[in-house]
Amino acid sequence: MKLRLEGDISGLEKGIEIIGRELSFELTEDGLPVKVEKTSGNIEVEFIDGKGVIRYNQKIHFFRALGLFIEIFRGNTCISISEKPLFTMNGVMLDCSRNAVMKAESIKLMLRKMALMGLNMLMLYIEDTYTIESMPYFGYMRGRYTYSELKECDDYADIFGIEMIPCIQTLAHLTQALKWNYASGMKDTDDILLVGEERTYQFIEEMVRCASAPFRSKRIHIGMDEAEVGRGKYLDINGYRNRFEILEGHVAKVVEIASKYRLEPIMWSDMYFRFASEKHDYYDLGAVVPESVIEKVPQNLDFAYWDYEYHDEDIYRELIKRHKRFRKNTIMCTCVWTWLGFCTNYGKSFSNIDAALNACKKEGIKEVLTTVWLNNGAEGNIFSTLLGMQLHAEHGYADEVETEKLKTRFNTCTGGDYEAFTDLKYLDETPGTVEGNLISSTDNKYSPANPSKFLLWQDILIGLLEKHMEGLNLDEHYAGLEIRMKNHIEKNGDWDFLFEVPQKLCSVLSLKCEIALTLKSNYEKGDMESIKQLVKYKLPELYTKVNDLRIAHREQWFRIYKPFGWEVLDIRYGGLLARIDSAISRLSGYVEGRIEKIEELEEERLYFDGPVRNDDIAMCNCWQYDRIATAGSTLV
To answer: Which domains does the chain have, with CATH numbers?
Structure first.
């Protein structure tokens, strides 16, 4: 495809060259004429009578418009499109702290897709995965970024008009950073900094200085969410103090440090609302933050209101109004749900994003972002969330998002297939879950079910979550899904690797579920022949399938992430393989008469006692590996 861009494209040349390779077009003198005009109005794209027009305001809008033009040209449709940008900031936050640290090339790939979507901000969540030269143990063996790596990514983002913002932690969520001896004098608990200590603020200043240095942006996210302040060493030193007072002093000090470097801080807002709740619940609609507390919040501080739970637009509107009481800029943070394991839950993600962003449009919120978390080992693939990012982007340019347009835009911007990506949700949206896998409790509080994770890691002989599988035919569900994933591999071009791990995971789960559902009952019936078949054929086959999954997962990991962090998943896979081998050994001993009984199979199976006790798989989620694999003690 050949284009001839007419008009002033100064400052856009590098981006056009990069996107040309992405969308397979080139600029030539004999190409299709496209008039480019910079205006103060909306994005406008025309293709009429063999000629094109692109009108844009900001650089990021040009690249979205360029993608729109290619889209309508490919469709051979004479059409005129006008879009009004509804948000001044519409971006993505990527978790690079839960073992999976994206390579610089992976970040650049994400930036190219974001440019075509029209997303203008990328925030990197980096708890300790950046370099502080004076602290060699900070991020040690964790794949931390160098200054040059982050600067390289920021330079690349700037080509498209995308702002990159560091997102760090200056209070809690610092377990990995604080586990070394250098931090012994500034820890409140294993996870939280000791508020009020001078050494703490020297440390925070180093974090702020080093995290912000590679980036053009003067904004920095200072974290401070989910912090149980004043409960550990702080209590021993200072005695009990009002938690609002502790928070107020710490926030003021960190904001002062940010101001020293002429930075504009952003803070997660939840602690103010948690402390106002008698239940210590961020989502407590009965909680009211005192005006005396609001008055002491620094005015040069933006709030990031994160809320991933609700599906009700009215609840979001009410909580946005409560944020408005603080009389400061509020950034709405939605979520592409991928942090419960291997699966991107598109039912929950779409529901959350649609409700929250529709509420933002009605309440006048101008800055929004969607978060991508990779908790507990980062088993999921960060690029599997692209469809959620596309939905977030489309909300920024339309009052209502049309599904058919979303499908077309997604294919243009990413090359991905809408149905293939949405099918990923069925790894966890299994028989027994509610439609969309939206909730796992009657009060909408707890997370969705995540069977693909707990069915993989639970033990063959112990099976802590085995009872939740009864009567659901999950073996058949995963066998059918394996076929669908295999078809998606063949039809998704550059994204084929995204579906290889789910396909092999489904292959493992279909067999593992069959074994789990029959082993104990056959043991109790004394069906030695079935157990012999299990030992001779099915368990060795499972061993092979698990190892195939491990290898595919490893290849995917090293393609996207730095090597640090993979050792955690190798240990998990190694443990699963070892336990399959032990199961073969023990069951062989039983059928051969060398072992009188299998004590693990003698135990009654109970429902898993997670955050809510229930016998329904839809109400069962457990995302911590150590709780799934064993009832014993583990450090893995």
So the answer is: 2-83 (3.30.160.230), 89-415 (3.20.20.80), 449-629 (1.20.120.670)
